[in-house]
Description:
- This protein folds into three domains: 2-148; 195-295, Helix Hairpins, CATH 1.10.287; 297-463, Heat Shock Protein 90 (2-Layer Sandwich), CATH 3.30.565.
- β3 (116-117) and β4 form a beta hairpin.
- The protein is built from ten helices and twelve strands.
- It has helices at residues 2-55, 62-74, 97-107, 144-194, 209-259, 263-293, 304-321, 343-358, 389-394, 410-420, and strands at 77-81, 85-88, 116-117, 120-128, 133-142, 300-303, 325-328, 336-339, 364-371, 375-382, 424-429, 435-442.
- It is rod-shaped.
- It has 464 residues and is of the alpha+beta class.
Amino acid sequence: MTRRIAWTLVVLTSVLLVLAVVPLAVSLTARERVAHRDSQRAATRVIAAAAEEHLSDGRPATSMRKELDAAARRGDCAAVYDSSRLASTPCKAAQGEESEELVADVLRGREPEPPESEGRLLAAEPAGDVREPAGAVVLARSSAPLDARIAAIWGWSAVIGAAALAASVLLSVRLARWVSRPLSTLDASARRLGEGVLDERADVGAGPPEVRRLAATFNTMAARTEALVHGHRAVIADVSHQLRTPLAALRLRLDVLAAGADTATAVDLAAAQEEISRLSRLVDGLLAVARAEQATPRPAAVRIDAVVAERVTAWAPVAEERGIRLVADSGGASPTVAMGAGHLEQILDNLIANAVDAVPSGGSITIDRRAAEATARVRVRDDGPGMPGRAKTVAFRRFGNPEAGGTGLGLAIVHRLVTVNGGTARLEDTAGGGLTVVLELPLWPERGPERADGPRSLPDPKKR
């Protein structure tokens, strides 16, 4: 942004300078040429007036010689002609074919057109009546002083333009930084807030008033978000404590009652214990969904192959106990994705748990991964009963599938953890029957501040 603002202002200033300085220099150059020509013609007329007194009135040539000497002292070359050259300065620049052509035009009573000669300028004036002159005067003047003044005009114009452009560059860079630096700082603060640094605040003391107001509004939003998240976390902690404690106490009392009860009562107590266990799992699932919805992950580099291998190893005993084949496809690349710490493990745990519950004995669960241009694709395939099309459309909602055998919250947790990390999740039918969960996860850039490719401490799947 700084470069765009600076370049825009510099280009605009350059255009304005060209439109202002160049026409001014051209105008001054034209004025210098006119002034130089007028001065030369005036000097020529002075000599012509003195020559007329000699040629027309018959007076001595003293005055004419005096003016020729004065022209010679100024550095001009002059010559007086009647039918032939009458007198001249020692310099020969006013003599030659060009001068003779000018004299012929003047003696015929015509306005001469002085030619452009390299290094000198010629002027011719009649001595006497313009229509029937008694003679003509030709004056040659060097163009070096004129060229020097014109060069000075263009040189000073270039210096002024360069100085103005340099000042414009400095002002443009300062203005661009004044505007863009607070925006860059605000962008960095917003990125850190999105990564989970809830106490992040933007600087409100720099930049234009609009940017300062934006930073103040951002700080207000960040403070409210922090209070809201902390409040929700506190509610979750309280609910977790308030619900789990009485459930655990109730389970212990039922265990005590079942120990001394008769057969019929023991059966009823066992059913009650099963419902309490189901309620405990439901509470744990709701708390897991709430935590996932409040997740603000700080992305880390996670190697998919390492996590998949670790979770397959952890769930293998459960799958073998139920007669299910759980494998990881080792073919293809091993991409590294950008995800929050422990999120991929939680996602795979929920997907494997759902698949283990759905697949009958003798079935299989396969996990594979592939790398695309900007994402990594992870698929969890099973050959179980699958899911109807209507159920797939609402499966990622809380209790979306009323026919689910578990709590109905596993896919909701998966969807939330995937989307909060910038990925997508969808359900497809497995070829030959079954369900496939397809995850599109963002790849980790080549360079990053941290890595999290090793396994993490997670709950034992046997205790789920």
